[in-house]
Amino acid sequence: MSTAASGAPRAARKSAPAKKPQPAPTKDPKGGPTAAGRKAFAKSEGAHLKPGVRKAEADMTPEEMKRKGSWAVRFYGREGDLPPLIDAHGKPTRFALTATAWGEPVFGNFALLAGVGERRTGAHRAAGRRVARRPGATKPVSRVTGR
Question: Is residue 63 a part of any domain in this protein?
């Protein structure tokens, strides 16, 4: 222990408090939840969220078409007014940024986007029914009936 000039013992210095590790952010600033956000939601709600499909339509599987189409219709195919897309400061709202999380333009034509969603869910249904044709047949074979 060291002593002060007056001979009295010095008070021990307090060390800086240890910094707590910051939790990973749950909201992506570009729109949608982060991986940590999806994990936190799964823990609190029991749901298993997947990240948005950002692929080009030609590269999507039927399941991805269904998911993206369902998202577009659910978010932008509503009756009546949509929530605001720009806040009071002129920045896009979280509602508008969901389009970015799914690989769509933030301020596009949302009625058109909802229509594309309807078409994608229809394409998914058609892809699910599509099967190789029998030789000489004019109609595809149904997976359900086998005819």
Answer: yes
